[in-house]
Structure formats: C-alpha cells, structure tokens
Amino acid sequence: MPASTPPHGTLSAWWPRSVVIVMIFGFAVLILMSLRAYQNAPPIPVKAVTPGGEVVFTAEDVAAGQEVFLRYGLMDNGTIWGHGGYLGPDFSAQTLHGLALYLAGRIAQSRFQTTYANLRENEKAAVDGAVAAAFKTNRFDGASGTLTLPDDSKAAFTEQVAYWTNYFADPAKNGGLSRGAVTDPNELRKLSAFFVWTAWASAAQRPGSAHSYTSNFPYDPLVGNHHTGGTLLWSAISLVFLLGGIAVVLLAFGKFDYLGWHGGTTAEAARPASVRPTQITPAQAATVKFMVVAGLLFLAQVLIGGALAHYRAEPGDFYGFDLSAVFPSNLLRAWHLQTMIFWVATSYVAGALFVASALGGGAPKGQRPLVHLLFWAVVVVVVGSLLGQWVGINNLLGDLWFWIGNQGWEYLEIGRFWQILLAAGLLFWFWLVLRAVEPVRRNPELRTFVVFFLIAAFAIPFFYLPAFFFGAKTHYSIVDVWRFWIIHLWVEGFFEFFVTVIVSIILFQLGLVRRITAIRVIYLDAILYFGGGLIGTAHHWYFTGQTELAMALGATFSALEVVPLTLLTLDAWDFYRLTRGESATAFRHRWTFFFLMAVGFWNFVGAGVFGFLINMPIVSYYEVGTLLTVNHGHAAFIGVFGMLAVGLMAYVLREVTADELWPRVEKFLKVGFWGLNVGLAMMIAFSLFPAGVLQLWDVLQNGYWHARSLEYTGTALARILEWMRTPGDLVFIFVGVVPIVLGLLVSYRGLWSGRVAAMEKKLAG
Question: CA angle, corner 741, sides to 738 and 744, nearest 5?
C-alpha cells in the first residue's frame, strides 16, 4: 500500500497521543516559566533613598502609583516597557531618559561648567559614560530592601513630578487625555514613583547578568541600554526553527496526500446518513439577534477606531471640537478594544449555539428561552461594562473603580464585577452547547466531533480564569504573565482551535468533507497550534522583567506558530475550489467560504508575516510599542478572527433567510466582503506599515523614548501618514461594515416578519 494512503481510512492512535504529548509538554514549560516570573520579577524596594539616607519614595508609593496609573486608564494612553496604548509615550522610557538628562546636566555643570547641550564631542562622551555607569550600577540591598539612588536623586524626582504634572494638563500634548486628567499632587507624586521604579528596573544591572532586569529595554544609549547578545542570538535561532518547521510540515504534506481539507479524495465526501439537514429550530433562530448585536458592536468599534486615528493625526482638535472633553482618547481606546472582543466573541457564541443544535439534530426542550436569557446577559455585561469604564476613567466611582469601572489593564479593562459576570455567562453558554449536543454524544460517528467541540468551547471560559489572579497592586511583571495567558492563549491558541473545530463541523455537515478528513484536520491543527502557541506565549515577556530563558523559549517556539499559518493558504485554495465546484451546497454558502478564504490570506499575512517580523527579539527590542505592532494587530485580529466572525454570520444568515429574500441579503454580504478586505489592505499599505517602518527607523536613530514622544509623533511626516489612514478607514467602515450590518438587519427583519405571518396564519386557522 502506498505511504500516502491511510490504511482502511482509519486514524492512527498516534494522532490523539501526539495532541496529549504536545499539550502536557507545552503547559508544563509555560507553567514553569510563569512560576519563575515570581522569582525573576524586578524587586520593588521597601524604600528608595538618596546617598545621604533621605527617603525619595517607598514600596507603598510605587504600588499606589500603579493604582493611579490604572484608575485613570493610562495604560490605554501610553505604555510601560512597550505594553499599552500608543497615543502617549512609553512612560518608563520617557522617565528613564528624563532622569538621565538631569544627571547628565549636573555632571556637565560640575565637570565642565557648561550645559549638556553645549558639550564638545569628547566631553559629551565622558559625561555619557558617567551617566551610563550611574544607571547601570545596581545599588539595591536585598537584605534591607533599600535602594540607594544616585546623587541629586531627590531633585531629579521632583523634576519628574513636575514633568508629568505638565503632561496631563493639555490634551494636545498627551494624545487626547481629558484636560487635567490627573491633578492631585499626592497622586502625581505616587504615579511618578511608579514611573521612576520602572525606569530604574530598565537600566539597573540584574544580579548575575550583564544586562538590566528588562534585558536593557528600552533602547537608550545615554544610559547604556543596547540590545543584548541573547537578543541577537535567539533571533537567529528562531529563523532556524521557522525554516525547519516549515520544511518538516511541507515534507509531510508532500508525502501524505490525505493531510489537509482535501483528505486525499473528494469522491467520498458525500453527506453521511447520521447528519441530515433539519429545519431551523426556534433556538437556532434566536441566535440571529446575537449576530445583529455583534454587527452593531462591530460598527461601534470601527467608528471609535476612526476617532482614535484622528487623535494621532490631530490630538488637540476634532474638526473644531474638543472631543477629549467628552470622550478622552484613553476611554475610546478601552472601548475600541472591548467592543472588538465583545463583537467577535458574540458572533462565536451565536455560531457555536447554531452549529451545536445542527450537530445535535435539533434543540433540547426549553433551549430557546435559555438562549434568550443568555442574550440579555450579554447585553447587560456589554452595556454595563462600557458605561462603567466611562464613569471609572472620569473618577466618579471612588473606591469602586476597580470593581464596576475601568480596571485599567490593557484588553482586560472592564471592572472585576463585569469580569465575574462574563465568566459566568461563558460557563452558561458552555452548558447550553452541552445540552444541544447531548443527543449525539454517544453516536459513534459524531462522538469525536462532539468531544472536540466541547473541549474547545470549555477552554474559552476556563482560560479566562487568570483574569482573577491579580489586582491593581500586583507586581506589574507578574500581571503581564497572567494577562498574556489570556490574551495569547485565547487568541493564538484556543480561539484558533475553536475556529478549526467549528469549520470542520460545518464542512462535514454540508457534506463537503469526509468525517475522517475533518477529524484529521482538527488533530493536525491542534498539534501545530499548540506545539508553538503554548510556549510561544513567552514572546510577550521579552522585556517585562523575566530572564533570557523566557526570551529563548518565546523566540524559538513563537517562530513555530507561523508554520500552521502557512498551511492556511492551502486551506484558502481548497475553499475556493469548493465554491467553484459542482456542489450546490457549497455554492449556496459561497460567501461563508469567501470569508474563510480571507481568513487564510490574512492569517498568513497578518499573523504569519507581520507577526513573525515583530516577534524576533532583535526586532521586538526596537519595535515593540510602535505602529508595526498596530499593523500586525489590525491585520491579524480583524483579518482572521473578524473575518471568521463575519463568515459565521454569513453561514447563519444563509440558513435562516428565506430563499426569496436571500438575493437582497447576499448583495450586502458581497459588498461588505470586498469593502472589509480592500479597506483593510488600504489601511495597512497606505498608513500602518510605512508609518511603522519609519517609526522603527526613528528608534534606531534617536532612541526608543524619542520615537514614542511628540518629538517624533508630532512631526509633519508622522501626522501625514496618520491622515493617510482615512481612505482605508472610510472604505472599511462604509463599504465594509455598514453593508454587513444592513444585511443582518434585513435578514432579522425578514425572520421576524415570517414568524409573525406564521403566527397570524395559525390563529386564523
């Protein structure tokens, strides 16, 4: 028998074994790195003192300053160690450079009786060396918990308090924060203490190493911060892992022709007897309103995104109106991120419920009112959390800001109370999915699909639990570990897996692939996604206070994440062939497949090409927190998870929309498909990518602090490139999103009208 033919059309037992091995190994290493972070996190001194023993700030000041940072939503304005919003500066880098300039000025005055700016070249080199030595020397005494700061540190700290006080005064200078966003002198002093601590950890040499606690991030030659040897080494080795991984997978695909959606043959892709088309159940029809809400949230997200882009192009003015007085930029960015999560998750929730009922052959008793209950729970969480962020950022909640306002952590901004409701709602959703598939859980032909479906669905609420592992005063480095357990494992792990399972079940139900083909694809994608994705989480931790072990593992395994993305180009071609074939079912769902084709394309470009570019440590060292990250984020999230979410909308709409109404809905989907894809491509090509490259170049030329400050972002060229986003944004919003929303509304109205007509007919009879 040829090696390319699986014996008797059965699956080897090594498929599930391989998945288990990959999961155990990946989580073991990830958990080990996460626990090590507690030991490796930069120490917070009990007290920081001048050489004479005068206290400058304390550990309580640093913790309280971090709390101020979160309460006012400043992580959605600027960044700490490259993580956060991009409208403001990197607070750690700006503070570090400000402290360095202050010390350089004092040394220049004492040694050469002139200002730092007026030094000759050889004098400047001598001063720079003295500044670097002062910042690199670690004067922290672990036994007493005392950090001794350099000379004149009290005056330097006072200058930083004044600098940040001035920063918060004017929206035009801070990226659109509300005027006087932080005015309390005590809060400003504590906030400055937090910033100064992050700056110290960025430069002070970690004991037992030749670099700082943050691997010399941010790049600032004045304090002696340059990339480490490990940053360069592990970038090179990551290329070896990438090329080797792609070679192995392509070799396997060449040798075994049954891998992938084609499954070695299409002749046996007939619908199995155990999966029959059924009439749309009331519970399935109830999911359409989820899709409508998802579409409206999508529209809200992109409109907010347009306003955010304007803040970068013209922060002090919104066509003659001071937008920051009502909707400051940090609030809009928090809403932009949360509506993004909400609309995609809502589409997935609805799509999963719809597919679960189809897989189970109907809907269990009482499912429809339970689906309605879930819908209103979603509405409460969405509306409540977004309003909570508004009043929270405006400091109107007092001590309740953390619970029902704006928690402040990027991507996890919603208050803790809303997080609890969200987790409870996701568990309730999982129970509804479980009820729907219960009738076929023991069906030998469908059992594997059901098991995978339930595992993928349960993983989504389960891996949200790390959101409860930290609070407002938890060490920043520790929080970033658990934040990316959620952000990375959700997006680049279990959402990817969930997507594969959903698509596999849909294709199987439509009779387009054989059962064994769909299951094999699920196993294969699980191995490839989790083989690199679990340990690859560490690529977010390069410069947040962990050791080079995290960098080594994060760089090499995140490179492997690109491998499955290259295969999605093959998936896109297979989806195209399905839509062009003779299958009436496939042609009926051609817009679903078109959106799946878009997922394959953008996954390769956005997550694969752009993602790998910025994941290499040597690039990330100079790039993190620049527009190249925004470029990757838009192409990957909207291009992949957004396109899939709209694809699920198209699938559900086609199933529930009457044939006579479908041509009208289909026109909206067609226009929306091209509007989304063309608009996103324009946004990237005209603005995000070239702007990101130029900002990276400024980092290389002038230091990280400069590229993130108004000294660069306020230049004419940077502002012009921001304005160049406008054409792409307009196409994306008005040719892409608006038609999608109109199609959803037309379909929902038709469904509602049909239900009313049926009820009237029944009453008349």
Answer: 155
42, part of any domain: no
Structural domain that includes position 91: 47-226
Structural domain includes residue 82: yes
**Peptide bond between residue 218 and the one before it cis (omega within 30 degrees of 0):** yes
| Main-chain phi, psi angles of 147, to 5 degrees | -110, 120
How confident is the model over 467-482, as pLDDT tens digits? 999 999 999 999 999 9
Say if 324 falls within a structural domain: no
The tokens describing 691, both together, are 């702007």
What's the DSSP call for residue 57?
A: E
Q: What is the mean pLDDT of residues 413-434?
A: 95
B/e letters for 194-221, b = 16+ CB within 10 Å, e = fewer, are bbbbbbbbbbbbbeeeebbbbbbbbbbe
| Tens digit of each residue's pLDDT (9 = 90 or more) over 80-118 | 999 999 999 999 999 999 999 999 999 999 999 999 999
Q: Which residue has the tokens 């409870």?
A: 424
Strand-pair category, 83-84 with 140-141? unpaired
The label of the residue with tokens 């309740």 reads: 400
What is the count of structural domains for the chain?
1
Least confident of 69-83, 231-245, 476-490, 600-614: 600-614
Tell me the sheet residues that pair with 558.
Answer: none
pTM confidence score: 0.92
Beta-carbon neighbour count of residue 605 at 10 Å?
A: 21
Report angle CA 193, 328, 479 to the nearest 5 degrees: 45
> How much is the pLDDT for 762?
47
DSSP alpha helices (H): ranges in 541-688?
548-560, 562-580, 584-588, 590-602, 611-615, 617-623, 627-633, 643-656, 662-683
What's the token pair of residue 299?
Answer: 């529209």
| Residue-by-residue DSSP string for 546-566 | --HHHHHHHHHHHHHTHHHHH
Write down the residue that tokens 């947040």 correspond to: 544
Tell me how far apart the alpha carbons of residues 81 and 199 are, in angstroms, rounded to a whole number.
9
Does residue 517 sit in helix, strand or coil? helix
| Residue 110 included in any domain | yes
